[in-house]
Each structure stands twice: as C-alpha cells, then as structure tokens.
Amino acid sequence: MKWKKLSVDETLKTINTSINGLTNSEAQKRLLEHGMNELVEEKKAGPIQIFFGQFKDILILILIIAAVAAYYVGDTLDAIVILIVVIINAVVGFIQEYRAEKAMEKLKGLISTEAVVLRDGQEQKVPAGELTLGDVVLLEEGDNVPADLRIIESYDLLVDESAMTGESLPVEKHPNILSTDDHGTENMAFMETDVASGRGKGVVVEIGMDTEIGKIAEMIQGEEEQTPLQQKIAGLGKTLGLLAVLVCSVVFVLEYLQGIPLVETFMTAVSLAVAAVPEGLPAILTLTLALGMQRMAKSNAIVRKLLAVETLGSCDVICTDKTGTLTLNQMTVRDARVNDPEMVYTISALCNNATQSDGKLLGDPTDASLLIYADENGYNRKEMEEKNPRLLEIPLDSTRKRMTTINQIGEDRYILIKGAPEVLLQKCSQIGGKNGICSIRPEDTDNAMEDLKAMTGNALRVLGFAYRKLDPEEDLDGKETLEKDLIFAGLVGMMDPPREEAKQAITLAKKARIKVVMITGDHKDTAVAIAREIGIANGEEIVALTGTDLDQLSDPEFENMVDDVRVYARVFPEQKVRIVETLKKKGHVASMTGDGVNDAPALKKAAIGVAMGSGTDVAKESADMLLQDDNFATIVKAVREGRTIFDNIRRFVRFQLSTNIGAILTITSSSILGLPVPFNPIQVLWINIIMDGPPAQSLGVEPPERGVMERPPLKEEIIPRKNLIRIVVAGVVMTVGTLALYYYLLSGGADLTKAMTMAFTVFVMYQIFNVFNCRSDGGFTNKFLFIAVGASFLLQLGVIYLPFLQGVFRTTALGAFDWVLILLIAGTIFISDWLIGKLVK
Q: Contact 413/390 with Cβ under 8 angstroms?
C-alpha cells in the first residue's frame, strides 16, 4: 500500500487530481475506465447444483447403493431409513456450503450508499458505487467511509475502525504523518469504517475489489478446506466401499460355483453389502455432533458447523485475541502512586466526560476507568458535578496531551488537569502531600519519573494529575495561560486487566498440551505483560514478534521459529493468515479468534475459526464457532467437548466395524467351508439395525474419559492401531464363536432353522456385549446405554418367540440350555478384549 508513504502533494500528483477534486466529465471517464466502486462476487454454483453436489461423496454413494440393495432384498423400511439419512446429510452439507455466499452478502450489505464529493469545485452527493479514483470525499461525524481514502485534510478527525480491526478505540487521522512501515495507517481511512468525530477530506485511492475490504471479500470467497474428521470419514468410506465390493464379489462367485440358485446368491451378496457398509455412521456422527453442539451452547459456545466440534478435539494451538478474550475489555485502575488522594479522586470525577447509564459505561475507556476509580472511593461524578459545576473545558488533543476543566468548588474556582505525566510535571511548581503543599524539588520530579518508569514497565497507561486554585481576578478567556504553577497530585496507572478464568483456562490448556498464542493489535510491551501475568509462558523468556518483525522474516525463517513464538503484537489481519498457514505447514491444528471484518480470511483459513459474539456479522459468518461471552475459557471448554466427541466417534466406529468384520468373515467363511450361510438376508439386515441402532447411538453420548484434558491432542486416525487390532480380533472372535456353534449344532443333527436361530442369536448377543467393551472409562453415567442394550435384547426375544416375527425372520423358540450356551460363547468377547488391552499398548 504505497499511498500512506506519499505526502498529500505526491498523492494528488500520482493519482492526477487536485484538492478540489475531479470535474464531472473526468469522473465519468474514470468510472468507465476503472469500473464501479463495488464488491464483485465470483460466479458460484446455484443452489440446485450445490445440493446435488452433496451426493458425490463416496460414503453417500455407498449408502444409496445399500438402500437399493435393501430394497431388492425386500426390506423397504431399511431402504427408506437409509435414504432419509442420505437426504439429511445432503441438506446439512448444502447449508454449510452456502455459508461463504452469506458472508459475501454481509460484506456487500456493509458498503456505504452515498458519499459527498467535490466535483467541478462544488459539493455533490453521489452514489458510493459511482466514486472513482481521484474523487475528493468530504467526511463528517457519523459518515461511513465509502472507499479507501488518503486523508488530505483533518480537523480532530477520529475514525472508528472496529468493524475492520476489532479494536474498540477510534484512530486519530492526520494528513501529514507518513508511514515508515507497511502498517501505519494514520493518514488513511478505509472503506466500511466510520467517522467517530471531527471532519476531514480524503482523496479516493482504491475502489471496489482493490480496497482493503475488497481484498478480504476475495479471500473469503475461496473454497473451505475439509476438516480433519471429514478427511478421515472420507478415507474410511472409500476403504469400506472397496471392501464391500470385493467381499460381495467373492461370496457371489463362491456360492454360484457351489450350485446355489442365482437369485439366492444375489440376495446373500446384497445383504452382505448392506452389512459391510456402516450406513448408520453419518446419522450417529450427526447425532453425536448435534448433542455436543447443544452442550457447548449452554457454555456460551455456539457452533455453526457440525464438524467443527470434532476439530476442536484435535486442536493443539489456540491463537487468541487479547482484548476482551484474555482480558475484560474494560480499562481498570491497577496502580496509583498519589501524594494527595482527595484531589486525585476529585479530578478523576470532575475532569471526566464518561457517564454511567443502567450499569453501562459510556465514553472514552480511560475516562470510564477513572469514573469507576473515583466512584469506588466515594467520589460520584454526578453528585460532585451538582455541587461543583463545570465552568469551562479545554478538551484533550494529541498536541496538548491533557484534558482541563475549571470547576466551582465551594467559593473558589479550581483548574483540574489530567494528562501525560511528563507534560504536567513541566507545568507544576508545587506538590501536594501529607504535610500540605510545598514547592516541588528536583528529587520530587525524579521520584515521579521513577514511578512513571516502573508503572509503564508493567504495561500500564499512566496519567498525571494536577490542579490549582484560581485567583478571583484571573480571566477564563485566556485558557492556555491558566495551566501554570500547578500542584502535582500524583500518578494513576490503568490497563485492561486479564480475566481470572483465562488464567485457569490457560493452565488447563497447558495440561492438555495445547499451546496458547496471543495475537493482538496492541503494543508489544502491553501484550508481553499480560502474557506473563496470565501464564502463557512458564517463567521462560517470552518470544514476541511485532507485525514489522514478521514482515522482515522470510517464509523459511518464520517456519523455523513459529513453534517458539507466544505473542504477536501490532499484527494486522493479513499477517494472521500467514501465521495460520505457517502453523498448518508445521502440522498443527490451529484455532484462530477474531471479531473484525478483516479477520474473516484468517477465521476461514484456520482449522477452526472462532468469532466473538460482539464481533462483526462478516466475522461471524466466516467462523465455525461463536463465543457469546467473548471468553477464552469458553474455547478451552469447547476443546474438552471436542475431545470427548472425537473419543465417542472412535467408540461407535470401533463398535460398528467390529460387527462389519464379524458379519463379513462369518458369511464368507461359511461359503468357503461349504456350509449353508448361517444368516438369511432378513437376519443380516436385523443385525445391521442392531448395529446402527440404539446401542451404537448410545456410545455417542458417553461421558469424557478420565484425564481427557491431561493428554496431548489426538493426531491419530479415526481408527488408531490399538482400536484396529481390537476391531479385527473382535470380528474374528465373533466369526469363530458363531461358526463353531453353528457347525456343532449341524453336525449334532439339529435342523437348519434351529442352527440358524442359534447362530443368529449368538451373533446379536456378541454385539450387545461388545457395546460394553467400547464404552468410556468415565463411569456408569450413560443411562442411554443401558436403556439401548435392554431394548435391543427385548427386541431379539421378540424375533425369536413371537409367532408373527418367527415367520418373517424364519426363527424358532430356544430353550434355557440354548441360552446358557449362547451367553457363554458371546461372553468370550469380554475375555478377548481384556487380553488385547493387556497385550497391546
């Protein structure tokens, strides 16, 4: 951005305009040449195209095939349920994909509609979209800045840039301050910011997509990257799909070669296809994430994107704002070194323009902190002003660096001043104290400067306080001449203090091996002081970089040190994107907080973008999660929930795949061994319903593991090595137990219906028992698990003993001894899992 480095004359010359603006004819010519001053959207797929695009996912395609297979087997109900799951997933995916367009619409809605410009030397109102390069725009209090402007005149011009940067304090603008680096913006006003006070003129130097907000618009229109869970589920879907096709083909060929009728062979193959694919996985995944979202909402974390809940569980770096997130976002007096407390309280109350209404503080944050400071010490501004009315005010400005009021206190008039200590001390000839007022000595000045140094060293914003009683004959018209022979009353230091809960949350994050990184637009010293106080670094030297430092580092240099940096100060939003991308290159799963429009690209780039509830709509639309209370501790709570959810996803994947492998091996092995298939197609679908139904779903609401926040973030796959071994062993145990019982009954002369009923029931009991192997070690608090297991067992009894269902499932009633045999064999699943737990680490 070259404009801020050019003087006013150089800017006007470069852009070929004058301080009186363009002529109407030249403006029209430039409008044709450079185009409209508006944000342009990329051409996107329409709603119908986006919706049908959801069906390209491999797991969704497998589910559709499974639904067709279920329909051909004759299970219309299962086919309908599968299709409902497919449609729900498609709708959720459609809503998420549409978000980028909503974010873009929010940006377009922000743009100013009209602007006052100088054309042909006259003031004119024109639509903001018709502004062009070289137009001179007039700015007044309350105006929205309609394009990127280089300020050419200013009169106490303050611009509120909070919508862009998230920083709450307005920025003073001066035409003659030139930027020495890439980030100084004192002579620029950006599109979509607001004039807080004062007035000025600016020449249009960038329009439309070339403005700062235009660059942001371009960045947030890009495609969203897949979350870790999406990648893992997609990989799992492809693997299972290939496995299903392979196994079904083998079984079909084997049975056909054995002379089994083609229709029966086909029915067995397609029923196996249904069993091989965990079509309940997306539904249980959605249910688990949705329940997690509900729990997080109660903790003030609103998740806008289901899969973002799980991503938090993998998070190992939290990049967080300072103001309002780690701190209270309220300036507070933290240190006072005063000689004359009564006068300091009086000045704090009377030389102050902040007000308090319905518990809310209005006005400058520094004034607000002094208002509270005075009030807490019994000096209420409203009451004091009624007794001691203000006669005159000389406002604070950047040149004077002080605010002055003259108040009637009793019979006398007093001049009360607060401002930069080094400026006030030069105007003081006396000092107040316990022993009354006496002449100020050099050592008094030295002591005050030492105090000032110590306080600023603690990142405090320090104000000096001074006063004097006016002589009756002194004229108030000579304002500046009144500020002399002042009595120094003391120093007061303020800062935005850290949240107590943020300190505790950072301690918890460290236990969970999560690195906390502070990113702020504030000064480096202030940021480091807060970082040290809240424990971001454990006693070691805090590595801090400013935005300028960051710009001087090459990509390889920054990559080498990014893991060590704990504080980024005076950082601009485009640099946040670089930080996120570098962390990603290093293999980190990083969350990023933000609240301004220009935070949107970084929020979108991060593995999980976290917007403040008090932030801009554009930031919220680009984020995955909103913090309603703007509190860092809420992020850490969300991480805990994310870890619990990922653990639960692993649980039901383990449970379902155990059943998948068990069913595949049992049917395939029976074909290879030349035995009749132990399950008919309807029984296979019933096993599938048990597998995908209440028991599996109950695993999605298991309580957290013990020590869930005392372990490193999980970087493993959705099926880690230990779980994979357990899945395979469980599948083998189910196969061996089922086929051994089946073969024993057939060789003992039992009829086929009895043998199939026993094999079918022992396989179902394996699933019911295996649920307990997959549960959390966090205690028996999940009542849904016991309800689900009880319901599944009762349903299985119905299938075996109810005459109507016996006909449907081709089962027969079992005796007491049969049940003893079934329970003993199914119980081997507990022994095998216990052995694996002991043998495999």
A: no
Cβ count within 10 A of residue 141: 13
- Report how far residue 720's alpha carbon sits from residue 709's, in angstroms, rounded to the nearest whole number: 19
Catalytic residue among 75, 148, 321, 522: 321
Q: What distance in Å separates the CA atoms of residue 327 and residue 346, rounded to the nearest whole number?
A: 28
Return the structure tokens found at 498: 């850290």
C-alpha closest to that of 373 among 492, 498, 526, 496: 492
| 643 contacts 709 by C-beta, under 8 angstroms | yes
Task: Give the dihedral of Cα atoms 294, 297, 301, 302; nearest 10 deg.
Answer: 80
Contacts of 459 (CB under 8 A, 6+ apart): 495, 523, 525, 526, 527, 528, 529, 530
Q: Helix, strand, or coil here: 498?
A: strand
d(CA 390, CA 409): 9
Answer for the pair 301, 311: CB distance below 8 angstroms, yes or no.
no
Q: What token pair was written down for 397?
A: 């400005």
Q: Both tokens of residue 617?
A: 């709509």
CA distance 188 to 659: 65
What does the buried/exposed string (b/e) look like for 804-832 if buried means 16 or more CB atoms within 10 Å of the residue's CB? ebbeebebeebeeebeebbeebbeebeeb
pLDDT (tens digit, 9 = 90+) per residue, 3-31?
A: 888 899 999 999 999 999 999 999 999 99
Give the CA diameter of the chain.
126
Q: Residue 626 CB: number of other CB atoms within 10 A?
A: 22
Q: How many other C-beta atoms lie within 10 A of the C-beta of residue 391?
A: 14
Distance CA 805, CA 761 (A): 14
Supply 227's token pair.
Answer: 């979350």
Taking the CA atoms of 662, 664, 667 and 673 in sequence, report the sign of the dihedral they define: negative
Question: Which ranges in 38-192 belong to alpha helices (H)?
Answer: 47-53, 58-73, 76-97, 99-110, 162-165
pTM to 2 decimals? 0.71
The beta-carbon contacts of 122-130 under 8 Å, at least 24 apart in sequence, are 128/37, 129/36, 129/37, 129/38, 130/27, 130/31, 130/36, 130/37
Q: Residue 782 carries which side chain, given as an amino acid letter? A: N
Residue 544 CA to residue 534 CA, distance in Å, equals 15
Phi first, then psi: what are they for 17, rounded to 5°?
-145, -175
- How far from each other are the two terminal CA atoms of the chain, in whole angstroms? 56
Burial 20-57 (b: 16+ CB within 10 A, else e): ebbeeebbeebbeebeebbbeeeeeeeeeebbeebeeb
Neighbouring residues of 43: CB distance < 8 A, sequence distance ≥ 6: none
Confirm whether 321 is a catalytic residue.
yes
Cα–Cα distance for residue pair 304/296, rounded to 1 Å: 11
CB atoms within 10 A of CB 653: 24
Dump pLDDT digits (tens) for 121-138. Answer: 899 999 988 999 999 999
**Side chain identity at 764, as an amino acid letter?**
V
- The neighbouring-strand residues paired with 594 are 611
Given a contact cutoff of 8 angstroms between Cβ atoms, the answer to whether 147 and 211 are in contact is yes
Q: What is the mean pLDDT of each run of 10 residues along the chain (841 residues)?
A: 84 93 94 88 67 69 71 69 70 60 49 81 90 94 90 89 69 82 77 86 93 79 60 70 78 80 68 67 71 82 75 88 82 93 96 84 87 95 94 83 93 94 94 87 94 89 95 77 92 91 90 92 84 80 89 94 92 86 93 81 88 77 84 88 87 88 88 85 77 80 89 78 90 96 93 95 96 86 90 94 89 95 97 90 69
Q: H or E stretch including 279?
A: none
In terms of Cβ atoms closer than 10 Å to its own Cβ (0-12, 13-18, 19+), residue 435 is exposed
Residue 565 to residue 574: CA distance in whole angstroms: 18
Element at 202 (helix H, strand E): strand 194-206
Integer Cα distance of 115 and 131 in angstroms: 8
Q: What is the residue-wise DSSP string for 12-56?
A: HHHTT--TT-B-HHHHHHHHHHH--SS--PPP---HHHHHHHGGG
